[in-house]
Design a protein that fits this description.
There is one protein chain. The protein is an alpha/beta fold. The protein has a single domain, classed as Cytidine Deaminase, domain 2. It is 35% helix and 21% strand. The protein contains six helices and seven strands. A five-stranded mixed sheet has the order 2-1-5-6-7, sandwiched between helices. A two-stranded antiparallel sheet has the order 3-4. The chain is globular, with a radius of gyration of 16 Å. Bound molecules: zinc ion (2 copies). It comes from Sporolactobacillus laevolacticus DSM 442. Belongs to the cytidine and deoxycytidylate deaminase family. Keywords: Hydrolase, Metal-binding, Zinc. One of its GO terms (molecular function) is zinc ion binding.
């Protein structure tokens, strides 16, 4: 049996979280990791108790759904809510984070961003990561089915 790398393991977790997303526009998941431990996770969805895009349709303003909180923000806010430091942590995201999430990631002291898919990669975000010395790396993740075949995932 092939052993899953840490990168693939955390990326798998983000993809699992993405399956909980309630916005139909983009299904995103994010996992925050410190010292190889998962400290928080998030997916893009409405505020707790709010109506879901999947039930009421997206709330579109200027081409964006404003109802949802992005996966990265949700994960960072989960750390804020439960008092978990994010300084020096790493984040695994299914898609390249938007500029708003990029700024939140930097400001939260997160030092590495791993993303599986390119998504409207913002050149300004790249500039900000570079200035903040945040390591950004693409970690492709498309072997969920491969995992199943290896018997690591059942069903
Ligand atoms: Zn939506
Ligand atoms: Zn975002």
């Amino acid at each position: 049996m092939k052993r899953l790398s840490w990168d693939q393991y955390f990326m798998a977790q983000s993809h699992l979280l993405a399956s909980r997303s309630t916005c139909t526009r983009l299904v995103v998941g994010a996992t925050i990791v410190r010292d190889k431990r998962i400290i928080a996770g998030g997916y893009n969805g409405s505020i707790a108790g709010g109506p879901h895009c999947t039930d009421e349709g997206c709330y579109i303003v200027d081409g964006h759904c404003v109802r949802t909180i992005h996966a990265e923000m949700n994960a960072i806010l989960q750390c804020a809510k439960f008092g978990e430091p994010t300084d020096g942590a790493e984040i695994y995201v299914t898609h390249y984070p938007c500029i708003q999430c990029c700024k939140a990631i930097i400001q939260a002291g997160i030092k590495s961003v791993y993303f599986a898919k390119d998504y409207k990669n913002d050149p300004y975000a790249e500039e900000l990561y570079k200035a903040a010395k945040v390591n950004v790396k693409k970690v492709p993740f498309d072997n969920f089915f491969e995992l199943k075949m290896m018997g690591n995932v059942t069903q």
